[in-house]
Amino acid sequence: QVQLVESGGGLVQAGGSLRLSCAASGRSFSPYNMAWFRQAPGKERELVATITRAGSSYYTDSVKGRFTISRDNTKNTLYLQMNSLKPEDTAVYHCAAQRLGVSKYDYWGQGTQVTVSS
C-alpha cells in the first residue's frame, strides 16, 4: 500500500504559476501509473493529467500546453507544473495511484487547494 500527500497549492493571480507535489510513502511508487485529478465546488471530479510507469503522459484538453506532469521515482514524488493559470483552474487537486493490473486509481491523497483569482 502507498500513502500519498499533496502540497504546493495556494492562492495565485490569473497568469501565474504553481507547482504541486505528491509525496508517496509506504513503498516505491515506480510500478504505479500516477495521475492528478481536480474537483471544483459543485462540479464532478475531473482527470487533469496522467503519467504511466514508463513516463508517457496524457492531458485533458483544457490544460494542454499549460500544465506538465512529471515524476521522480528516486524521490517517490509526482509533480504538476501549472503555468498560465486561469480562474477556472480553481479546485482541490488530488494525486492518485493505479496499481499494475487494476483498472481504477485506488490510492488517493487528501488534496491541496488551488485558487486562481481574476
User: Mind describing the biggest β-sheet?
Assistant: 7 strands, mixed
Helical percentage: under 10%
Strand content of the residues, in percent?
Answer: over 45%
Average pLDDT works out at 96
Rg calculated over all Cα atoms = 13 Å
Features:
single chain; mainly beta; seven-stranded mixed beta sheet; four-stranded antiparallel beta sheet; 11 strands; 52% strand
Would you give an account of this structure?
- This protein is mainly β and 118 residues long.
- Helices cover 0% and strands 52% of the residues.
- β9 (91-98) and β10 (107-108) form a beta hairpin.
- The N and C termini lie far apart (40 Å).
- The model has no long low-confidence stretch (mean pLDDT 96).
Question: In terms of topology, how is this protein built?
Answer:
Layout: E1 3-7, E2 10-13, E3 18-25, E4 33-39, E5 46-51, E6 57-59, E7 67-72, E8 77-82, E9 91-98, E10 107-108, E11 112-117
Parallel strand pairs: 2-11
Antiparallel strand pairs: 1-3, 3-8, 4-5, 4-9, 5-6, 7-8, 9-10, 9-11
State the gist of this model:
By secondary structure, the chain is mainly beta. The protein is built from no helices and 11 strands.
